[in-house]
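Take one protein record:
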Amino acid sequence: MPIYNKLVRDHIPDMIRLSGKGYQAEELSDEKYKEEAQKKLQEELNEYLSAETDEEALNELADILELLHALSNQHGASPEKLEEIRKEKARVRGGFDEKRFLVMVEDKK
């Protein structure tokens, strides 16, 4: 019997049950949930980095986005608030669309 010990999407236990298999799951405290969501975010990031096709990459990015929404809630903000913060940072500092790579900055004399 495989042991997973990891955060899963809400419907995964139902899908396992409907497949006729048994499982053990538990509801996490807020503190433990945040810790496990951060681990899951790292897992999904690693899967994104190793994706070999655009389709795989987009699926992993969707998982990352889902986790960003969940974690924003854990930090007391809605996904909409997170998007507002993102937009304001983009307005002030720009986005990443221009593909700029900073090599160095001269020291003041």
Residues 12-84 form one domain. The chain has a mean pLDDT of 96.
